[in-house]
Amino acid sequence: MSKIIAGIDEAGRGPVLGPLVMVALAIKEEDQKKLEWLGVKDSKLLSRQAREELFEKIREVVYDFRIEVIEPDAIDLSLNSDESNLNWLEADTSARLVSEINPHKIIVDCPSINLVAYKKYFLGKLSNKDVELLVEHKADFNHIIVAAASVIAKVIRDRIVDRLHEEVGVDFGSGYLTDAKTQDFLQNYHEEYPHLFRKSWKSYKNVVDAKKQMRLGDF
User: Which domains are delineated in the chain?
Assistant: First the structure.
């Protein structure tokens, strides 16, 4: 019987607008070489065209997969709760996804600086407590199945952002505040398209507060 290895990664953790995409991919241990032959690597090291070309090829090679798109309002709900935060939201979601696959080994790209605490929390959320669990920083760079998960997550998020551009009729860029188009969209459209934004982000709150101050100044 083949050993099934699952990798977990995300795309869109940091932007002020748009969703967070979580992906759990599972592969037979002996099929990992196929991902290497395809040229799979951490999504940040690949161009968008290369990621798109790999997308279907990865899906053909993997044993199973699960995907979840977490919208801004769900992110805000988690961050505004006394019992959760963004790390726990990722852990809750990815543990549920990978439990549906039930692999022999799970490799997680850890978003928290505290590896021990995150691993303990994650393990507590798994249906199979006896699974081999590896929680690492830079797992998307060190493990090819996690790199493949990062590619799938990034492609899906990019496609969602493209659809949002068409929906609002404005190119707001990537959604990250390092992007000048995103900065402009936040300044000028946050009232018109509030559902797109993560309102718990400090950058969003700063813009809203500044706008309120300007209006008070009108008096």
Answer: 4-165 (3.30.420.10), 170-217 (1.10.10)
